[in-house]
Amino acid sequence: MCLLLPAFVPATHAAIVEQQMRPGITASAEYLTGERGKPAALLLHGFLQTRDSPTIATLARNLHGAGFTVLAPTLSLDIPNRTRSLACEAAHRHGMDQDLAEISRWVSWLKAHGHGSIVLVGHSFGSLQLLAYLSQNPDAAVKGYVGASLVDAKVGALPRQPLIADMQSRAQNGQRDLVTRTLSFCRNYTSTPESLLSYLRWDPARVLAALKRSPVDTLLIMGDADDRLGRGWLTALRHIQVPMAIVPGASHFMDGAHEFELLEHTERFLESPERGLAR
Q1: Which of 92, 85, 229, 232 is closest to 154 using CA atoms?
Q2: Are 34 and 117 in contact (CB under 8 A)?
Q3: For residues 66 and 144, is the Cβ–Cβ distance under 8 A?
Q4: Which H or E run includes 101?
Q5: Nearby residues of 175 by Cβ (< 8 Å), 6 or more positions away
Q6: Chain Cα centroid distance, residue 244
Q7: Which domains does the chain have, with CATH numbers?
Q8: pLDDT digits (tens, 9 = 90+) for 6-53
Protein backbone atom coordinates (compact mmCIF):
# COMPACT_ATOMS: atom_id res chain seq x y z
CA MET A 1 0.00 0.00 0.00
CA CYS A 2 1.51 3.31 -1.07
CA LEU A 3 -0.10 6.69 -0.51
CA LEU A 4 1.06 9.92 -2.10
CA LEU A 5 -0.50 12.59 0.08
CA PRO A 6 -1.81 15.82 -1.48
CA ALA A 7 0.76 17.92 0.33
CA PHE A 8 2.77 19.24 -2.59
CA VAL A 9 4.63 22.48 -2.25
CA PRO A 10 4.95 23.64 -5.88
CA ALA A 11 7.99 25.86 -5.28
CA THR A 12 10.12 22.96 -4.05
CA HIS A 13 8.33 19.94 -5.60
CA ALA A 14 8.03 18.40 -2.13
CA ALA A 15 5.58 15.81 -0.86
CA ILE A 16 5.05 13.60 2.16
CA VAL A 17 4.62 9.97 1.11
CA GLU A 18 3.45 7.05 3.21
CA GLN A 19 3.75 3.30 3.13
CA GLN A 20 2.12 0.64 5.27
CA MET A 21 5.09 -1.36 6.50
CA ARG A 22 3.23 -3.96 8.53
CA PRO A 23 -0.36 -4.33 9.64
CA GLY A 24 -1.13 -1.23 11.70
CA ILE A 25 2.28 0.34 11.10
CA THR A 26 2.51 3.19 8.58
CA ALA A 27 5.72 5.13 8.01
CA SER A 28 6.34 8.32 6.07
CA ALA A 29 9.09 10.02 4.10
CA GLU A 30 9.72 13.44 2.60
CA TYR A 31 10.10 13.26 -1.16
CA LEU A 32 11.88 16.10 -2.94
CA THR A 33 12.00 15.70 -6.71
CA GLY A 34 15.10 16.85 -8.53
CA GLU A 35 16.53 16.86 -12.04
CA ARG A 36 16.17 13.92 -14.36
CA GLY A 37 19.43 12.17 -15.05
CA LYS A 38 20.78 12.65 -11.54
CA PRO A 39 20.73 9.81 -9.00
CA ALA A 40 18.22 9.85 -6.17
CA ALA A 41 19.56 10.03 -2.61
CA LEU A 42 17.86 8.06 0.16
CA LEU A 43 18.82 9.78 3.42
CA LEU A 44 18.53 7.98 6.77
CA HIS A 45 18.60 9.59 10.21
CA GLY A 46 20.47 8.49 13.34
CA PHE A 47 19.49 6.33 16.30
CA LEU A 48 15.92 6.92 17.53
CA GLN A 49 15.74 10.19 15.57
CA THR A 50 13.55 11.29 12.65
CA ARG A 51 14.15 12.82 9.25
CA ASP A 52 13.83 16.22 10.95
CA SER A 53 17.12 15.71 12.81
CA PRO A 54 19.32 18.70 11.90
CA THR A 55 22.08 16.81 10.07
CA ILE A 56 19.66 14.99 7.77
CA ALA A 57 17.21 17.86 7.31
CA THR A 58 20.00 20.26 6.32
CA LEU A 59 21.64 17.75 3.99
CA ALA A 60 18.31 16.92 2.34
CA ARG A 61 17.53 20.59 1.71
CA ASN A 62 20.97 21.32 0.29
CA LEU A 63 21.15 18.23 -1.93
CA HIS A 64 17.74 19.08 -3.33
CA GLY A 65 18.94 22.63 -3.94
CA ALA A 66 21.77 21.11 -5.99
CA GLY A 67 19.24 19.35 -8.20
CA PHE A 68 19.11 15.87 -6.66
CA THR A 69 15.98 13.93 -5.86
CA VAL A 70 15.88 13.17 -2.13
CA LEU A 71 13.80 10.68 -0.17
CA ALA A 72 14.16 11.07 3.60
CA PRO A 73 12.13 8.49 5.53
CA THR A 74 11.50 8.25 9.24
CA LEU A 75 11.83 4.64 10.39
CA SER A 76 8.69 3.62 12.23
CA LEU A 77 10.47 1.85 15.12
CA ASP A 78 7.17 -0.04 15.39
CA ILE A 79 5.17 3.14 16.06
CA PRO A 80 2.46 4.14 13.56
CA ASN A 81 3.10 7.45 11.81
CA ARG A 82 6.03 8.26 14.10
CA THR A 83 7.01 11.94 13.95
CA ARG A 84 9.05 12.36 17.14
CA SER A 85 12.35 11.04 18.43
CA LEU A 86 12.09 8.25 20.98
CA ALA A 87 13.52 8.37 24.49
CA CYS A 88 16.10 5.77 25.45
CA GLU A 89 13.85 4.63 28.31
CA ALA A 90 10.83 3.98 26.06
CA ALA A 91 9.76 0.37 25.53
CA HIS A 92 11.62 -0.52 22.33
CA ARG A 93 10.19 -3.56 20.55
CA HIS A 94 11.69 -2.80 17.14
CA GLY A 95 14.80 -4.51 15.82
CA MET A 96 17.31 -4.39 13.00
CA ASP A 97 15.32 -6.78 10.81
CA GLN A 98 12.31 -4.45 10.84
CA ASP A 99 14.54 -1.45 10.09
CA LEU A 100 16.09 -3.19 7.11
CA ALA A 101 12.70 -4.27 5.78
CA GLU A 102 11.57 -0.64 5.86
CA ILE A 103 14.73 0.54 4.10
CA SER A 104 14.08 -2.07 1.42
CA ARG A 105 10.50 -0.84 1.01
CA TRP A 106 11.68 2.75 0.52
CA VAL A 107 14.28 1.66 -2.04
CA SER A 108 11.53 -0.20 -3.90
CA TRP A 109 9.31 2.89 -3.70
CA LEU A 110 11.98 5.04 -5.34
CA LYS A 111 12.56 2.44 -8.01
CA ALA A 112 8.82 2.18 -8.71
CA HIS A 113 8.71 5.95 -9.14
CA GLY A 114 11.27 5.94 -11.93
CA HIS A 115 14.58 6.20 -10.07
CA GLY A 116 16.88 3.54 -11.45
CA SER A 117 20.02 4.94 -9.79
CA ILE A 118 19.87 5.31 -6.00
CA VAL A 119 22.61 6.29 -3.55
CA LEU A 120 22.11 5.53 0.15
CA VAL A 121 23.27 8.31 2.49
CA GLY A 122 23.18 7.78 6.24
CA HIS A 123 24.20 9.60 9.37
CA SER A 124 25.52 7.90 12.52
CA PHE A 125 23.43 4.78 13.29
CA GLY A 126 21.57 5.38 10.04
CA SER A 127 24.87 4.78 8.26
CA LEU A 128 25.13 1.45 10.10
CA GLN A 129 21.58 0.45 9.17
CA LEU A 130 22.15 1.25 5.50
CA LEU A 131 25.38 -0.76 5.56
CA ALA A 132 23.47 -3.66 7.11
CA TYR A 133 20.93 -3.39 4.28
CA LEU A 134 23.75 -3.54 1.73
CA SER A 135 25.01 -6.75 3.32
CA GLN A 136 21.73 -8.53 2.55
CA ASN A 137 21.12 -8.70 -1.21
CA PRO A 138 20.34 -5.02 -1.93
CA ASP A 139 18.26 -3.91 -4.90
CA ALA A 140 20.26 -3.54 -8.11
CA ALA A 141 19.05 0.08 -8.37
CA VAL A 142 21.30 0.97 -5.42
CA LYS A 143 24.56 2.22 -6.94
CA GLY A 144 26.39 3.83 -4.02
CA TYR A 145 26.65 4.34 -0.28
CA VAL A 146 27.76 7.34 1.78
CA GLY A 147 28.18 6.80 5.51
CA ALA A 148 28.59 9.97 7.58
CA SER A 149 29.83 9.53 11.17
CA LEU A 150 29.51 5.74 10.86
CA VAL A 151 29.36 3.91 14.21
CA ASP A 152 28.99 0.34 15.38
CA ALA A 153 26.35 -0.73 17.91
CA LYS A 154 28.14 0.35 21.08
CA VAL A 155 27.45 -1.46 24.34
CA GLY A 156 29.31 0.64 26.92
CA ALA A 157 31.78 -0.83 29.38
CA LEU A 158 30.26 -4.34 29.55
CA PRO A 159 31.90 -7.10 27.49
CA ARG A 160 29.84 -7.68 24.36
CA GLN A 161 29.96 -11.47 24.04
CA PRO A 162 28.53 -12.30 27.50
CA LEU A 163 25.82 -9.72 26.86
CA ILE A 164 24.99 -11.32 23.51
CA ALA A 165 24.94 -14.77 25.10
CA ASP A 166 22.57 -13.55 27.83
CA MET A 167 20.17 -11.95 25.35
CA GLN A 168 20.34 -14.97 23.06
CA SER A 169 19.45 -17.31 25.94
CA ARG A 170 16.53 -15.10 26.97
CA ALA A 171 15.26 -14.89 23.38
CA GLN A 172 15.52 -18.64 22.81
CA ASN A 173 13.51 -19.19 26.00
CA GLY A 174 10.77 -16.96 24.64
CA GLN A 175 11.32 -14.24 27.23
CA ARG A 176 9.56 -11.02 26.25
CA ASP A 177 10.16 -9.13 29.47
CA LEU A 178 11.93 -5.84 28.87
CA VAL A 179 15.60 -5.49 29.79
CA THR A 180 17.62 -2.31 30.23
CA ARG A 181 21.17 -2.17 28.92
CA THR A 182 23.55 0.30 27.23
CA LEU A 183 23.19 0.69 23.47
CA SER A 184 24.62 3.42 21.27
CA PHE A 185 24.30 6.74 23.14
CA CYS A 186 21.63 5.31 25.49
CA ARG A 187 22.85 4.28 28.91
CA ASN A 188 19.41 2.95 29.78
CA TYR A 189 18.02 1.44 26.59
CA THR A 190 14.91 -0.59 27.33
CA SER A 191 14.05 -3.36 24.90
CA THR A 192 13.01 -6.97 24.47
CA PRO A 193 15.96 -9.40 24.46
CA GLU A 194 15.35 -10.41 20.83
CA SER A 195 15.20 -6.84 19.57
CA LEU A 196 18.27 -5.77 21.52
CA LEU A 197 20.17 -8.80 20.24
CA SER A 198 19.54 -7.79 16.62
CA TYR A 199 21.53 -4.58 17.21
CA LEU A 200 24.18 -6.01 19.53
CA ARG A 201 25.41 -8.34 16.80
CA TRP A 202 26.69 -5.34 14.81
CA ASP A 203 30.03 -5.05 16.56
CA PRO A 204 33.10 -3.30 15.08
CA ALA A 205 34.38 -6.47 13.40
CA ARG A 206 31.09 -7.05 11.62
CA VAL A 207 30.88 -3.43 10.49
CA LEU A 208 34.40 -3.53 9.09
CA ALA A 209 33.70 -6.82 7.30
CA ALA A 210 30.52 -5.38 5.77
CA LEU A 211 32.45 -2.35 4.52
CA LYS A 212 35.08 -4.54 2.88
CA ARG A 213 32.35 -6.56 1.13
CA SER A 214 30.23 -3.58 0.10
CA PRO A 215 28.65 -4.40 -3.27
CA VAL A 216 28.51 -0.72 -4.31
CA ASP A 217 30.82 2.28 -4.46
CA THR A 218 31.38 3.54 -0.94
CA LEU A 219 32.46 6.73 0.79
CA LEU A 220 32.72 7.41 4.51
CA ILE A 221 32.70 10.99 5.78
CA MET A 222 34.11 11.25 9.29
CA GLY A 223 34.96 14.10 11.65
CA ASP A 224 38.28 13.98 13.47
CA ALA A 225 36.71 15.74 16.48
CA ASP A 226 33.86 13.20 16.79
CA ASP A 227 33.74 12.24 20.48
CA ARG A 228 31.08 9.57 19.89
CA LEU A 229 33.37 7.24 17.99
CA GLY A 230 34.91 4.27 19.71
CA ARG A 231 38.57 4.40 20.60
CA GLY A 232 40.68 3.59 17.55
CA TRP A 233 37.69 3.55 15.21
CA LEU A 234 39.17 5.90 12.61
CA THR A 235 42.40 3.90 12.67
CA ALA A 236 40.45 0.68 12.07
CA LEU A 237 38.61 2.26 9.15
CA ARG A 238 41.87 3.45 7.62
CA HIS A 239 43.36 -0.03 8.06
CA ILE A 240 40.79 -1.65 5.75
CA GLN A 241 41.42 1.13 3.22
CA VAL A 242 37.77 2.07 2.85
CA PRO A 243 37.38 5.27 0.81
CA MET A 244 37.07 7.98 3.44
CA ALA A 245 37.01 11.75 3.74
CA ILE A 246 38.16 13.15 7.09
CA VAL A 247 36.66 16.53 7.97
CA PRO A 248 39.09 18.40 10.28
CA GLY A 249 37.44 19.70 13.44
CA ALA A 250 34.03 18.21 12.64
CA SER A 251 31.89 16.76 15.42
CA HIS A 252 29.58 13.75 15.15
CA PHE A 253 26.80 15.94 13.77
CA MET A 254 28.86 17.77 11.12
CA ASP A 255 27.26 21.02 12.26
CA GLY A 256 28.27 24.65 11.86
CA ALA A 257 30.65 25.32 9.00
CA HIS A 258 31.27 21.57 8.62
CA GLU A 259 27.81 21.01 7.15
CA PHE A 260 29.13 22.54 3.94
CA GLU A 261 31.99 20.04 3.82
CA LEU A 262 29.54 17.19 4.40
CA LEU A 263 27.47 18.52 1.51
CA GLU A 264 30.49 18.99 -0.74
CA HIS A 265 31.76 15.42 -0.26
CA THR A 266 28.28 13.94 -0.65
CA GLU A 267 27.44 15.98 -3.73
CA ARG A 268 30.74 15.12 -5.40
CA PHE A 269 30.09 11.42 -4.78
CA LEU A 270 26.56 11.67 -6.16
CA GLU A 271 27.79 13.43 -9.27
CA SER A 272 30.30 10.71 -9.98
CA PRO A 273 31.11 7.97 -7.45
CA GLU A 274 34.49 7.22 -9.05
CA ARG A 275 35.64 10.84 -8.74
CA GLY A 276 34.03 11.27 -5.34
CA LEU A 277 36.11 8.66 -3.61
CA ALA A 278 38.58 10.06 -1.08
CA ARG A 279 41.46 8.07 0.37
Answers
A1: 229
A2: no
A3: no
A4: helix 96-112
A5: 193
A6: 17
A7: 2-152+203-276 (3.40.50.1820), 153-201 (no CATH)
A8: 333 334 578 999 999 999 999 999 999 999 999 999 999 999 999 999
